[in-house]
Amino acid sequence: MQVSVGGTRTCALVDTGANISVMSKQFFLRTPYSTHKLEPPDITSVIAVNGDHVKVLGKVNISVTIGNRNFSASIYVLPQLHHSLILGVDFLKQTKAKLNFENDTFEILENNDVVTLSRLTLKKGLAKLIKAITIPKRSQTLISVAVSHQTHDSTVLLEPLKSLTHKHRILAAKALVKIKHGKSLFKLAKPD
After folding, report:
1. How confident is the model at residue 24, as a pLDDT?
2. With contact defined as beta carbons under 8 Å apart, do 21 and 90 qualify?
3. What is the extent of the structural domain holding 95?
4. d(CA 48, CA 32)
5. Which of 1, 68, 151, 173 is 20 to 30 A removed from 92 (C-alpha atoms)?
6. Confidence band for 40, pLDDT divided at 50, 70 and 90
7. Domain end residue (candidates: 59, 84, 119)
8. What's the angle, vertex CA 35, arms to CA 42 and CA 177, rounded to 5?
């Protein structure tokens, strides 16, 4: 989803599988907030999608603009990240956001009114693994997929096939992702 952080535009990943919102150090340094000293974080590390523990560099309060609406957010800064900004469950709860699959929209509740911030354009395509992988039990991994029938720089909703869970015992959530040169990243988990 296209957002602006202090006037610096980026594509944020809306991730219902992430408890907290995080930003890469590289993107942080491109924003006006880089002149501010990072606050000490209340958590010292996070567990990445691949199971690695990643040190949290600090925390920063920012303004995120989505459409024509501004939101305050507390964001953790990480040394490296596959996306410049991930808006997690903390941000979604704070803004009372919801993905409305019936209307293909990303919405928030503002003063008891539903405000549509983004429309999802649904074009069917297929996401295929770029290379074969093995997912260990009780782990999560970020995979690279080739996505058909989508334009470069578009935001799409990747939705796992039911056979992924039933046949292969792998879990995946619906995710809004950015397509770059026909490719994107997708998170999978194998519980047992």
Report:
1. 96
2. yes
3. 2-119
4. 26
5. 151
6. very high
7. 119
8. 65
Domain identity same for 18 and 101:
yes
- Specify whether 8 is located in the same domain as 99: yes
What is the per-residue pLDDT across 69-104, written as a single tens digit (0 to 9) for each? 899 999 999 999 888 999 999 999 999 888 888 887
* pLDDT tens readout for residues 113-139: 777 877 766 566 778 888 888 888 888
Do residues 83 and 143 share a domain? no
Euclidean distance between CA atoms 96 and 107, whole angstroms: 8
> 7 with 55, same domain?
yes
